[in-house]
């Protein structure tokens, strides 16, 4: 009887922890973006911003509250079209403020459970890397576990980089792999 009670207590605490995973707005936006990845982001593409022969940028209909901008980019070549989603979450000339925001975003999305209709749930798993002021770019690559099918190509990256004297915190979702994109 005690073991059953202990098991129920453990399950209820796990369920409460799982609900916390979905309690932040960054996580909810990321869930929507990843859900629409198999559709090439068709449901979240907004108005065209810019275009040239190889790249077209669109506004994203999914934003992280407080983000400076969110863009979906269509990369075209003779063989295929590949899509990526990028949001600039924070920018400051102050390294310490940027590092705090970077850590906060990481904490919000690590171990996120993503459910896509018709697929098994996956968990975003990443290892924190500490930014330093002398390093101009710090990137954390999240893995989707267990990823199968199309999701094996999906990459989620959080980066903090110095750009024109300011530190930016950026979250990207893109197709990677041999024929896919590298983060930008």
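-> sequence recovered:
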């Amino acid at each position: 009887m005690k073991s059953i009670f202990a098991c129920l207590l453990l399950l209820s605490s796990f369920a409460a922890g799982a609900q916390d995973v979905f309690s932040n707005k960054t996580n909810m936006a990321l869930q929507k973006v990843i859900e629409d990845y198999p559709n090439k982001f068709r449901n979240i593409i907004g108005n065209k911003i810019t275009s040239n022969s190889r790249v077209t940028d669109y506004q994203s209909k999914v934003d992280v509250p407080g983000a400076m901008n969110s863009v979906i980019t269509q990369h075209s070549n003779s063989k295929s079209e590949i899509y990526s989603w990028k949001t600039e979450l924070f920018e400051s000339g102050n390294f310490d403020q940027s590092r705090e925001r970077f850590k906060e975003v990481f904490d919000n999305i690590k171990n996120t459970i993503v459910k896509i209709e018709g697929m098994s749930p996956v968990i975003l798993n990443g290892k924190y890397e500490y930014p330093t002021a002398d390093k101009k770019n710090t990137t954390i690559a999240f893995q989707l576990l267990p990823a199968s099918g199309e999701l094996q190509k999906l990459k989620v990256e959080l980066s903090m980089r110095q750009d024109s004297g300011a530190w930016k915190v950026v979250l990207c979702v893109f197709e990677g792999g041999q024929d896919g994109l590298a983060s930008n």
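Helices lie at 2-21, 25-36, 95-109.
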